[in-house]
Amino acid sequence: MSDPKNQRLGSVDALRGLSVAAMLLVNNPGDWGHVYAPLQHAAWHGCTPTDLIFPFFLFIVGVSIALSMGGRIEAGAPKAPMARTVLERALRILLLGLVLHALAWWLMDKPHFRLMGVLQRIGICFALTGLVALYLRASLQWALLSLLLVGYGGLLLAGGDLSQAGNLAARWDSVLLGPLAYQWDAARGLAHEPEGLLSTLGAWASCLLGLRAGEWLRRGHTGRLCLLGLAALALGYAAQGLLPWNKQLWTSSFVLWTGGWAALALLAAHQLVDRHGWPALGRSFGVNAIAAYAGAWVMAVVLEGMGWAKPIYTLGLGWLARAVDPFAASLAFALCFVLVWALVVRELDRRRIYIKV
Fold it and tell me: What CA–CA distance (Å, rounded) separates 133 from 126?
């Protein structure tokens, strides 16, 4: 049985890995025109199973920070070297995200370069949460989390309507990112960026929630972890009447709703894997998470940019689309894509090769 106070937890590696595998699954269908509804993001307001994936990953980032740094902080280790390590790693993650976007811009002949993205958001949240773990005691961490939830939610509500074109976050991104956003309407001067700048406040709150959950896990306070999950779910469900769940805006209700599920998933994984010895499914993805995500991105971009993706799909699974169902064929392609990378990370794990960014 693993002791959460001093050992790496298989449950955390497993949840991180399953989140990455799920990212690969939903990001790489064989045919974007035929994707089952649960494997799509909500068009705007709402929360599908797919919308849980990125919040789960950021929650686990916070948990991992607590597990990796909490003991050293308690032991009185110098904070400056740890802060430097946190910032250096965050910068590497952010720069990797920029490189991947540059590759997509070049190979896929995109009309403009996109500045923000998944890895960029992870890097920012990792840096901010790591510094919070180092320099703010628990009570101030809770206060900051509450301030983010209430303050960011208040900004969105005070900033006008919550439509895709009229929300405050979109207006900020239009000014600060402009044509470097995911979508840019030059005629109206309007940007749309799912990983935008202002909405990163909500994403940071998800990471902070994971930090506090990870600290309780590290100390063995699993009862508090259960209460956190249930309370967050209840608050997130109640708050949607005022501020709807919305992943692209990363609303405060979305933070609480997804964070509640993540806390309960962490508790369940800890009990099953760490306490009762169940297999840590997804661990191989989890110990090479960023490398797997980046490698899969490169593979997908090269296949698409070289014009190979559609022929591979047609030759390999076209018969399934015709004989059974195009949705099933599209899902089968995504599953094959994940399987390829499952074999890659399993071999890396077998050889004890862990690529750290």
Answer: 10
